[in-house]
Specification:
The complex is a heterodimer of chains A (139) and B (303). Chain A is α+β, with helices and mostly antiparallel strands and 139 residues long. Chain A has two helices and eight strands, in the order ββββββββαα. Chain A is elongated and about 50 Å long. Chain A has two domains: 83 residues, ATP Synthase, domain 1; 44 residues. In chain A, helix 1 packs antiparallel against helix 2. The mean pLDDT of chain A is 83. In chain B, a hairpin with a 5-residue loop joins strand 4 and strand 5. In chain B, helix 1 runs antiparallel to helix 8 and helix 3 runs parallel beside helix 4. The longest helix of chain B has 75 residues. Chain B is elongated and about 110 Å long. Classes of the chains: A alpha+beta (139), B alpha/beta (303). Chains A and B meet through strand 5, strand 6 and strand 7 of A and helix 1, strand 6 and helix 8 of B. Strand 5 of chain A pairs parallel with strand 6 of chain B.
């Protein structure tokens, strides 16, 4: 069984979000999405804000939004360390839109480079959230 | 014999102390449950982060070009010890234990001719260590866990440590905290933060990572996306915040456990004292009555 499955773990600072045996998992890497199948070559990648899809028997079992982090892949295991992880269904569109607007204003208002950078990151996260809501599901 | 009133007053005062300690015990117990959950929930992340960083660090090809947080300054002269203590007292030997470890460590390092700096988290630690190592304390950070430890606070502390490190104010940084084992036991745990070192002591207690470590012991060379140093530059500061946060959570849970145990003890002691005083009170009262009776009877006989 372990031959055809990947042990996938998604951990956020608050808890172990997901720990499952899967056929495939698609992770939004910093340089493009990548799918992890059993026997994947070892790799460490940073993760950009986006959606992690987990597949069992060809169907998506869960879609989880992560706001960036890191992932470690070995042949039998895929670990994602995410700062924020929440299921896509739990994203509240109006809330995110308000957040996005606020962050964009913040960028215009604030000249301090450090807080600008922070606001820009927040904008990226919010945009990724909206994109996650809009993107169609490929089965 | 006329101290009946004194006894009554003492019993009343011990009773009210007991009420306070038992209330504090309840409060600590309630907080403990939440704090314990939080601390235990944060462990997987911190452990996996360490493991990931450990495997990256092990496969770094050129240590000299690696970020300084990983490689170290190449010296071992100035040590910074971050001491996690509580803001409030009445938690048994919690702060004393941390204080004792720190004292030993500072003396040991000083004897080896090294400079030690102390960064103290929590008001109580300052009280314990100020008299002895006053000039070594560079700062005290207070109110970190009000009402509960927050990640932002940990990130600020980590940022501060990192910027001190970048200004070459120290070479090695160790954080020491009480690791939450159970409500009754806390283990003083030192952990080296800079330069990064895989902490073995914390791993032996966690059954999951132990099993996995065994199966993963085969050295693997990773592909990096983006390149190695970019990942390290992101991963190392993050790891710092996470480890500080983990220490804060563990320390907070331990504090509640220690306080609960201490207050439980105090409540029990107060109960014992009340029993003792009540016996005394009753005996005295009886003796007093007997004496009065004898006086009446002997008075009647004399007639």
């Amino acid at each position: 069984m372990s031959e055809s499955k990947v042990k996938f773990e998604l951990v956020s600072p608050e808890r172990l979000v997901l720990s499952e045996e899967l056929n495939m998992v698609v992770v939004p890497g910093a340089e493009g999405d990548f799918g992890v199948l059993p026997g994947h070559s070892p790799m460490i990648s940073s993760v950009r804000p986006g959606v992690i899809n987990t597949y069992v028997d060809g169907t998506i079992t869960s879609k989880i939004f992560v706001a960036g982090g890191f992932s470690e892949v070995t042949g039998s295991r895929c670990t994602v360390l995410a700062e924020v992880a929440l299921p896509v269904d739990e994203i509240d569109r109006t809330l995110v839109e308000a957040e996005l607007k606020e962050c964009l204003e913040e960028i215009n208002r604030n000249n301090d480079p450090l807080s600008q950078k922070e606001a820009k990151t927040n904008v990226e996260i919010a945009q990724a959230k909206l994109k996650a809501l809009d993107s169609p599901v490929y089965q | 014999m006329a101290n009946l009133k004194d006894l009554r007053v003492r019993i009343a005062s011990v009773k009210s102390t007991q009420r306070i300690t038992s209330a504090m015990k309840m409060v600590a117990a309630a907080k403990l449950r939440r704090a314990q959950e939080q601390a235990e929930a944060a462990r997987p992340y911190a452990e996996r982060m360490e493991r990931m960083l450990g495997s990256v660090a092990a496969s770094v090809s050129d240590i000299s070009s690696a970020p300084k947080l990983l490689a170290g300054t190449g010296k071992d002269e100035v040590h910074l010890i971050v001491v996690m203590t509580t803001d409030r007292g009445l938690c048994g030997g919690f702060n004393t234990n941390i204080g004792r470890w720190t004292r030993q460590q500072v003396n040991k390092l000083t004897n080896e001719g090294k400079t030690v700096k102390l960064l103290i988290v929590g008001r109580k630690g300052q009280g314990i260590l100020r008299s002895e190592f006053g000039e070594k304390i560079i700062d005290t950070i207070e109110d970190t866990a009000k009402p509960a430890p927050l990640f932002n606070t940990a990130a600020e502390i980590a940022k501060r440590i990192t910027s001190m490190y970048e200004n070459v104010e120290f070479d090695v940084c160790t954080i020491v905290y009480n690791r939450f084992e159970s409500a009754l036991t806390q283990i003083v745990t030192p952990q080296q933060l800079i330069p990064f070192a895989l902490n073995t002591s914390s791993d032996e207690n966690s059954e999951t990572s132990n099993q996995e470590n065994q199966s993963d012991d085969i050295p693997v060379s990773y592909e990096y996306e983006p390149e190695e140093n970019a990942i390290l530059a992101e991963l190392l500061p993050k790891n710092m915040s996470i480890q500080v946060f983990r220490a804060m959570l563990e320390s907070f849970a331990s504090e509640q456990g220690a306080r609960m145990a201490a207050m439980d003890n105090a409540t029990r002691n107060a109960g014992d004292l009340i029993d003792q005083l009540t016996i005394n009170y009753n005996r005295t009262r009886q003796a007093f009555i007997t004496k009065e009776l004898i006086e009446i009877i002997s008075g009647a006989e004399a007639l």
